Amino acid sequence: MSNVPSRRKALGQLAAMSIAPMLAASPFRHVYAQTAKQIRVGYLHIPSCDSQMWLMKEHGLWAKEGLDPVFTKFNTGIEGFSALVGGSVDVFSTGGVTHNFPARGQGIVVLPNTVEWGGQIFGRADAGVNTLSDLKGKKISTTLGTTGQIFLHTALKSVGLDSTKDIEIVSQSMPNAVTSYVTGSMAAVSTWVPFNLRAREAKSSKLLAEARQFASKGAGYVITAYSTNKKILESNPDLIRRLIAAWGPANEMLRTKKEESINTLLTKYYKGEMEAADMTANFGAMDILGNGEWAGKMTDGSLAGMLDSVTKLFVEFGAMKDPLSASKYADFSYYTAAYKK
Questions:
Q1: Helices (H) and strands (E) in the chain, counts
Q2: Alpha-carbon distance 83 to 85, whole Å?
Q3: CA angle 334, 335, 337 (to 5 degrees)
Q4: Of 119, 320, 80, nearest to 219 (Cα)?
Q5: pTM value?
Q6: What is the DSSP letter of 330?
Q7: Taking the alpha carbons of 209, 210, 213, 215 in that order, is the dihedral positive or negative?
Q8: pLDDT, tens digit, for every residue of 90-115?
C-alpha cells in the first residue's frame, strides 16, 4: 500500500495548520481547563447566528476557555428571548429580535455576530401577487416582532404601502408561516434565510424583495448578536468574558478562512439541510466584521446607532412605545476590554 497520505487527509492537515495561530489568540491569556463552567446557549439555526458557535465547538475553543456548552435550538427569536428572560438559557444568539426584547428592558446585548441581510418576501402569482404593490389588501404570513415583520415593513414603505393598514398580517411561527404560504393559505410570506429555501419552492412562487436591495438606503439589515440577562451579568460575568474569548478566534476564522469554514459548517453542522449553493447564498446575506472592526463600532457609537435604527421600525409599526436606546440595553464593555486596539 502507498504511504502517501490521502488528499483529504493532506487538506485537513493544511487547514489545521492555517488556523492554528487563530486558536492561540485568546485575548485574555487565561487557561480555564481546571475551572470548566457550564453555559446554556440558545440559538437560531441560521448561519448568521450560529456559524461562530459551531466553529468554536469544532476547534475546541469552548473547552479552551473552560466552557461546557449545552445548546438549545429555537425557531424564532421570540421563543429564545422568552427562555433567556425566564432563565432557562444563559445566552441567546438571534437576529431581528435583538432589536426588540432588549429595547423593552428584557435582555442585554453583549456580543455581535454579523450584520444580516437575510429578509426575503415571496408572493404567489396564482394569488395575483407579482410585485410588492400587489400585496395591498392581501394576507401575508410572518412572525410578528422578528426579522420577518421588520423587513416586510421596510419593503412595503418603499412602494408607498403601510404594513399596519394596507395588508393583513397573520402571525405564526416561521415554520408554520412558510407552510401556510406553500399550501396556498396565504398569498405571501415575509421570511428569512434559510426558511426561504422552502418558500421559493411553492407553486408559482416569486421573490418580491430581498434585504440587500435596501442596503444603499441604510435599511434592510438586522444585527445578529448574543444577549444575556441581568442575573448572569451580576452573578457570573466571567461566563460572558469566556464566551467572548472563545468567539473571537472563531469569528476571525470565519472571516479570513471563509471557504474552509463554510465547508466545515456544511458537512458537519448543516449536513442534509442545505446544498453548497444555498450555504454560499446564506453567507452572501451577511457581513462578517473583524474583531477590531466591531470594537471600533462599539466605541464610536455606530453599532448602537445601527441597533437603534431597527428598533425605531418596531415603533413605526406599533410594536412598542418609548423603547430604551441601545446605549442603555447593550453592554459592550466585556468585548472592548478584549478586542479594542
A1: 15, 11
A2: 6
A3: 65
A4: 119
A5: 0.86
A6: B
A7: positive
A8: 999 999 999 999 999 999 999 999 99
pLDDT tens string 223-271 = 999 999 999 999 999 999 999 999 999 999 999 999 999 999 999 999 9
Are the C-beta atoms of 36 and 67 separated by less than 8 Å?
A: yes
Determine the CATH number of domain 26-115+222-339: 3.40.190.10
Separation of alpha carbons 151 and 96, rounded Å = 9
Same-fold call for 26-115+222-339 versus 119-217: yes
Residue 15 has pLDDT above 50, yes or no: no
Q: Which run of H or E residues covers position 292?
A: helix 291-299
The domain defined by 119-217 carries CATH number 3.90.550.10? no
Pair 206, 130: CB distance under 8 Å: yes
The cell for 17 is: 495548520
Angle between helices 291-299 and 302-316 (to 10 degrees): 70
Q: Is residue 44 classed as helix, strand or coil in its secondary structure?
A: strand
DSSP per-residue letters across 228-280:
E-HHHHHH-HHHHHHHHHHHHHHHHHHHHSHHHHHHHIIIIISTTT--HHHHH
Domain ranges of the chain: 26-115+222-339, 119-217
The owner of cell 427569536 is 77
Dihedral (Cα; 62, 289, 267, 200), 10-degree rounding: 130
Interval 11-30 mean pLDDT: 50
How far is it, in rounded angstroms, from Cα 242 to Cα 250?
A: 13
